[in-house]
Amino acid sequence: MFHDRSPIYLQIADGIKNDVLSGALKEDDQVMSTNQYAAFYRINPATAAKGFAQLVDEGVLYKRRGIGMFVSPDAPAKLRAERRQRFFAEVVDPMLEEAKRVGIGVDDITHYLGSRR
Amino acid sequence: MIELRGVTVRYGSTVAVDNVDLELPTGAIYGLLGRNGSGKTSLLSVLASYRKPSAGTVLIDGEAAFENPRLMRQTSFIRDTLDLSGSDRISTVFAVARWLRPGWDAEYAGKLLDLFELHPRERVGGLSRGERSMLGATLGLAGRAPLTILDESYLGMDAVARTLFYRELLDDYLAHPRTIVLSTHLIEEVAELFERVIIMDRGRILLHDETDALRGRGVTVTGPADLVTAFAAGHTVLGEHSLGTVRALTLDGRLDPDEIARGERDGLSFGPLGLQELFVHLTSQPRPLEASR
């Protein structure tokens, strides 16, 4: 489930963000408690709590005292906007690097993309 | 808060624990890692007040722990020897635990015994290495001591028993939060349970940090020797090996993504370092480094 390449709390936060983006978690849906999460994924509860705290800080989740944590109403739109911004730097640029390495020209790529429209 | 202040353990002229200061907030699971002979068991023996340190003190919530009966009832130290008589039956051991441990949960102890497929009528002396560890784990968990110290309590357990043990440890900790210190060599299989990791090396604390902070720390860089050497300038090098003109260096610390992207453009490749590898690199004998030339 988790890998060693980055802190688990960031992996937890990314996982929940992906669930919000895919619609698996909707606005105002309640998320698991940190203890439920820790028991389910077999990790230390402090690590899980840190992941959730990160999401509260970023405004993806909000807390209701004594009840739990919920998906913020504006989270899906906000996350989508963030990902769109990163799309070119994180997805397109590395693709262009690889294309250059193997000798595929930009024209070839636009031609291919045109055929997929 | 559990505090170790200037703790030193000497055996004749050998220094097993060398002037250790450590602050452990209570209510967390700590992993104590170190190679054989690094001083783990000596440190734990002092933490549990089984041994008076040659110098220094252990304070639990500000109170000196050594020969403090109240604190000792709240401290459980499970070590290799189990400190039990071989002729005793498990049922007798449980009766003693119930008398000794205010938090003893007899029902849970029975459940763990079933899980590990041990019988209350078995005698301690007749148990295999793995079964002794299972009994130790049972005593440690069902005792529910506010400070529970488990010294390599998985020795001899097979993979299935270890998985059961880790699962019970986490579930019981979630239900009954307390301070648990677990020493181990098998880092990869338990790292996710530890809130913090303490690494000992030659009697000293090499590192004490959140386990999560160690993930993604350390990276291997591979490529043409001159490029790799140039890239490593300014980084701490943990290890290196070469084959012909190819060189691989293990660097400490977290690299900036831009730095990695630049390196990749120059034809270098980067790989993550697992916790186990990081531990091995950090606790190996330091070697003279050529990379910083």
UniProtKB/TrEMBL annotation, chain A:
Domain HTH gntR-type: 6-74
InterPro entries according to UniProt: Tscrpt_reg_HTH_GntR, WH-like_DNA-bd_sf, WH_DNA-bd_sf
Stored SUPFAM superfamilies: Winged helix' DNA-binding domain (SSF46785)
Keywords, comma-separated and alphabetical: DNA-binding, Transcription, Transcription regulation
Top-level taxon of origin: Bacteria
Protein name: GntR family transcriptional regulator
Native source species: Paractinoplanes lichenicola
UniProtKB/TrEMBL annotation, chain B:
One Pfam family hit: ABC_tran
SUPFAM superfamilies: P-loop containing nucleoside triphosphate hydrolases (SSF52540)
SMART domains: AAA
Residues annotated as domain ABC transporter: 2-227
One term of GO molecular function: ATP binding
Entry keywords, A to Z: ATP-binding, Nucleotide-binding
Superkingdom in the source lineage: Bacteria
Protein name per its UniProtKB record: ABC transporter ATP-binding protein
